[in-house]
What we know:
Blueprint: H1 3-13, H2 24-65, H3 73-96, E1 102-118, E2 123-141, E3 146-157, E4 186-196, E5 206-212, E6 218-219, H4 221-225, E7 230-233, E8 242-249, H5 251-254, E9 260-269, E10 291-302, E11 306-321, E12 331-347, H6 355-358, E13 361-373, E14 388-399, E15 407-415, E16 438-450, E17 454-465, H7 484-489, E18 497-510
Amino acid sequence: xxxxxxxxxxxxxxxxxxxxxxxxxxxxxxxxxxxxxxxxxxxxxxxxxxxxxxxxxxxxxxxxxxxxxxxxxxxxxxxxxxxxxxxxxxxxxxxxxxxxxxxxxxxxxxxxxxxxxxxxxxxxxxxxxxxxxxxxxxxxxxxxxxxxxxxxxxxxxxxxxxxxxxxxxxxxxxxxxxxxxxxxxxxxxxxxxxxxxxxxxxxxxxxxxxxxxxxxxxxxxxxxxxxxxxxxxxxxxxxxxxxxxxxxxxxxxxxxxxxxxxxxxxxxxxxxxxxxxxxxxxxxxxxxxxxxxxxxxxxxxxxxxxxxxxxxxxxxxxxxxxxxxxxxxxxxxxxxxxxxxxxxxxxxxxxxxxxxxxxxxxxxxxxxxxxxxxxxxxxxxxxxxxxxxxxxxxxxxxxxxxxxxxxxxxxxxxxxxxxxxxxxxxxxxxxxxxxxxxxxxxxxxxxxxxxxxxxxxxxxxxxxxxxxxxxxxxxxxxxxxxxxxxxxxxxxxxxxxxxxxxxxxxxxxxx
Length: 511
């Protein structure tokens, strides 16, 4: 076996061998070095091949003049060696890229100053609440049409946190990875994605996916979080759940930029008996029934700069705590919820007016919720009849005034008395600002420290509640809206928050 082929096979073998390498980084560094050597050798061989072909052409012309023809063994040998190296480089690319799992990490240290003023004027605070958040991301493209994506996560306070064992709602499935709880590594998302350029021979690109959904940090919420947007619109849904989705793009058949529709469905609670029982996993009539959600996202227009986006979903069998102070009593089912939202986004204002406006993002979003109480559930949000709630949200994000890559932003949102969202997973430790029945104000700036690997953010959030229950469940126990005066009159003045503010600093490593 010739030397170039031995070198190629050795490079590919690095993936499966220990070679006493200290770290995976060391292995990939070695593979990168061997890749460069192979590419350099391939370049030299191709130059040699070109020269041999030129020499062969001259020899052929000379042979034709003397009626003689001779083969060129050197040229055939070089062709074989080039084919061997190109095959080995292809194998190495597969081994280090799409055909194997790729990992990356996202670690964030955060310190927050949180202040609360209660309805009766009393106060609560935490001057320096520190957390670690770790995401381990996995991607695997088995073919050009089929891929897998997963994310493991933990989010915890520094050290052991007092009172954590008294907060069983913190490990609820919708928010298991969004709260500073413990150092247990949980699955935040895990799903496969199938995509194709045609649907039933029509020129309609489409996708299908099923698994643990990437359903937090959705559209527009991702701006302040400095993340890629998940598909849900974060104005009225921001929770973890399991389900499926399928997207169909109609731009090719309609000629309308960016038009698509996406169907989504999920399950937020499975009604099933314990594994160790006479009827494992059978439905249990004594506990809350299945909680299912179905909806669709329709984007009628998106040209990359301006877009109009809409979303609707319905969630059934939503619940309320029987007694929030005694979680062992469990939940009761109270009804369903219709939710609609629409937004207009300008990703760049105007056309060449200035570089600053070209890189500015502005959005306006409106949302509505409609309760659908069960007759036997006792009502929703303190009422037995249907109630509509409304919310408006606007924001602007501009390029940094002190760096080329930083982003600064301000946002405002307002929710009405009966506004109800499913945004428990929002990355705001004082409570979801988008769930607020009242007014919320936010300002932030995100700046890079070392390229796109290390960054910092400072964020200020202020929520002025007009009514209680913004972050409760859906029934009368925790969801009934009370004004501050009503809260005091009913003896809840020291437990209902009037205003909350959070000053947050983080430093974040992503690679």
